[in-house]
Amino acid sequence: MLFSSLIFLFIFLPLLVVVYYILPKKFRNYILLLFSLVFYAWGGVSYTIILIVSVAINFFFVKQLEQNKKQKKKWLIFGLTFNILVIVVFKYLDFIIENINVIGGYCLNDFTELPLKHIVLPLGISFFTFQQMSLLWDVYRDENSQKATFSNIALYISLFPQLIAGPIVRYNDIISQIKIRVETIELFRSGIQRFLVGLFKKIIIANSCGEIADSIMSNSIDNINTPIAWLGIISYTFQIYFDFSGYSDMAIGLGRMFGFKILENFNFPYISQSIQEFWRRWHISLSSWFKDYVYIPLGGNRNKPYKTYFNLSIVFLLTGIWHGATWSFVLWGLFHGLFLIIEKLGFNKILNKLPAIVRWCYTILIVIIGWVFFRIEELPDAFSYIAKLFGSGEFNNFHLVSYLNKERVIILILATLFSSTIFDKIRLLLDEFKISKTIFYKISVDITLIGVFVYSVMYINSGSYNPFIYFRF
To answer: Is 399 a catalytic residue?
Structure first.
């Protein structure tokens, strides 16, 4: 079920809000759990069975960690191994088999190819599996935490706002809110506002940019010139940011509507002036997860420089693999890891002496080139597209204009503005002069958001292009 679907907006969410708030507080977690399972089951009942079994097994490991203090490291290893095996089987088994077949066919003359399993990928498995690993780590590290209950663990894993596409919520960050939280009218109102902002980013900006990107990148690379290639990848650059950050905004907003305060997942990554800064701003929940549960346990930067660079390579190799079972994702992760290492080797000192605009151009260029590998799964095609970006295409406007109209130009301008901090600066200016406290301002904001909602619903109802990129992960 998509947040941007009519059934979610007009049936699921209103029904949940009514049932949640008319029942006594002691039943509210159970209502959220029930509705979260229904939300997930909408994509397939078999997915829900997998989710419930996974939650039950992880709860077993949690109880072992709580009850067997002397053997808790052993149980942590068992639990982490189980979760890694789950994600390997469902997400990477065919990728492994394909590569075994390639290597076997190359090295052995009489090699018989192994058959692919074609296992259906459960929705959001990368997200909820990482949350379960976070659960095991946090229980392992915190001996003084209160004993876990199955209902609390199940709600933590399956809470519908972040279940399918994140953010990756830490157990220690949310468990106290699951046990005790305060729902207020002001928090509910801010949740609606944040949800509508996310809906705007997803429906109006991401979808429109996605249509441009798909219309260009679905062509043969030989049939597009350099300006069109740039338009395609820039449109995709906007699409993936507004698609995912829009979903995160909606998840954060939905959480607030039920009293939860979910941490931010994006902080204007496209204004970054280094790749290090980009990863402090992009998909914050994932990058901090890898930092706390992989990079630091490996030793972080506490050892000799070469060990630090090795640790970074491992982290970004895993970051690429986490996103998908293709070599293009692996290369995307290593590509970012390479520039992080280059910056740590001393290039950051050179960057710091350069003008801000030069630092930004360097960073956004690396990010955009990286998105080529993210978007185009076949590596030869990805390299051909990058070559086209820096090739000698025809620099005439005729072909470029065929992909643009007034509406798309306005969308690209909006995407540029919303990728910057200009609106945040305007908001701070309004706060400084106390304009944001006035009734006129609040009514204006509400009317604008209602207009955004109506326009978004009209777009959805038209049956237009409406994917969620990160559902595949």
So the answer is: no
